[in-house]
From TrEMBL:
This is aminomethyltransferase. SUPFAM superfamilies: Aminomethyltransferase beta-barrel domain, Folate-binding domain. Belongs to the GcvT family. Pfam families: GCV_T, GCV_T_C. Its EC number is 2.1.2.10. The lineage of its organism: Bacteria, Pseudomonadati, Pseudomonadota, Alphaproteobacteria, Hyphomicrobiales. Signal peptide: none annotated. Residues 11-261 form the GCVT N-terminal domain. GO terms for biological process: glycine catabolic process. It catalyses: N(6)-[(R)-S(8)-aminomethyldihydrolipoyl]-L-lysyl-[protein] + (6S)-5,6,7,8-tetrahydrofolate = N(6)-[(R)-dihydrolipoyl]-L-lysyl-[protein] + (6R)-5,10-methylene-5,6,7,8-tetrahydrofolate + NH4(+).
């Protein structure tokens, strides 16, 4: 790989582990390891999978205007977050399209951690800094935006907590959608992108190397690549920005309005507020749904969807085989009246019409530790 491709700080560890690499969001990422996608996927569902997600970006927002900055940037109430509480939210554009989805954690009275997606990290950085500068010049508030240089690891699965405990990191008091700083320059949260109980840890490179070594001594832990991460999140019905949600898709169409408090929907002054209220008033034209192809043929992103008489009614945004589900799984958008339909649609796969049913999400149950 050449050009502007970025490399993970721990790339040498992945090379030594036999990883096969590929480009993703401008990074050279481990796609699979010698065990293969199926084994990596099932290892995460049954035991614990270790993911290097250092391509993602951590931003610290601090200062007396941190709440106000986040309330302008995101459709949520930063002031309602308790210390250590995390919240799934978005950056929206003026048309209420999703610029990025992210998780915000309150670390202190005037400090927040924002975890952003890799492909949007630079744009998110500019977006936050521009908002902070604009508001400062208007005398509205004062907030500082710091992009942190950290290795970022995720360990997911029902035995993730036990593996961390054996490695010297206790997790018992940390519940789902909470985060804190267990040590200096460390950030740890309990959320996950697989539907399983799991943890994310941002830490300095030297500490990360030591932690990885301790974790991989545990037979319950295995490196897992980007390919299995995708099949895991798809089974869990979780969106991938750039496919299932984009700057052209709003939270109402995406079925993500649960992330926006009712009072914020009604009176929030976040970017895109007026546009989102207008969409809610008239109703979204399309809805994100789970899709289950009939038979064993996976239906991939980009496939068009048709009704029984051949009329285009939607498209697939993510698709593949679900190793835990035991059948092909997909997500996509259909015209709103069809979102609750029990009649099969048809996906065009290289000229062949594959019957496909609308299916409830998630395909596999979430197993978060909510207390």
């Amino acid at each position: 790989m050449t050009g502007d491709i970025k490399h993970l700080p721990l790339e040498d560890l992945h090379v030594a582990a036999g990883a096969r690499f590929g480009a993703f969001a401008g990074w050279s990422m481990p796609l699979t390891y010698p065990a293969g996608v199926m084994k990596e996927h099932l290892q995460t569902r049954e035991h614990a999978g270790l993911f290097d997600i250092s391509h993602m970006k951590l931003f610290e927002i601090s200062g007396p205007g941190a709440e106000a900055l986040l309330n302008r940037a995101c459709p949520f109430d930063a002031g309602a977050l308790e210390i250590s509480q995390s919240k799934y939210t978005f950056f929206l554009n003026e048309a209420a399209g999703i610029i990025d989805d992210l998780i915000v954690t309150r670390l202190g009275q005037q400090r927040f951690m924002v975890v952003a997606n890799a492909g949007n990290a630079e744009a998110d950085d500019k977006h936050l800094r521009a908002l902070a500068l604009d508001s400062e010049t208007k005398g509205v508030f004062d907030a500082k935006v710091d992009a942190l240089d950290r290795v970022f690891l995720a360990i997911q699965g029902p035995e993730a907590w036990a593996a961390l405990s054996r490695a010297g990191i206790e997790t018992g008091s940390l519940l789902f959608m909470h985060g804190f700083e267990p040590r200096e320059n460390w950030f740890m949260s309990r959320s996950g992108y697989t539907g399983e109980d799991g943890f994310e840890i941002g830490l300095p490179e030297a500490d990360a190397r030591n932690l990885v070594a301790r974790l991989l001594e545990d037979e319950r832990v295995m490196w897992v690549g980007l390919a299995a991460r995708d099949s895991l999140r798809l089974e869990a019905g979780l969106c991938l920005h750039g496919l299932d949600i984009t700057p052209e898709i709003d939270p109402a169409s995406a079925g993500l309005m649960w992330a926006i408090p009712k009072e914020v929907r009604a009176s929030g002054t976040f970017i895109g507020a007026d546009a989102l209220r207008a969409i809610l008033e008239r109703g979204p034209a399309q809805k994100r749904v789970g899709l289950k192809p009939q038979g064993r043929q996976p239906v991939r992103a980009g496939a068009s969807l048709f009704n029984a008489v051949g009329k285009p009614v939607g498209h697939v945004t993510s698709g593949g085989f679900g190793p835990s589900a035991g059948f092909p799984v997909a997500m996509g958008y259909v015209e709103t009246p069809l979102a609750s339909s029990t009649s099969p649609l048809f996906a065009d796969v290289r000229g062949t019409k594959i019957p496909i049913d609308i299916n409830p999400l998630p395909f596999t149950p979430h197993r978060y530790r909510k207390g």
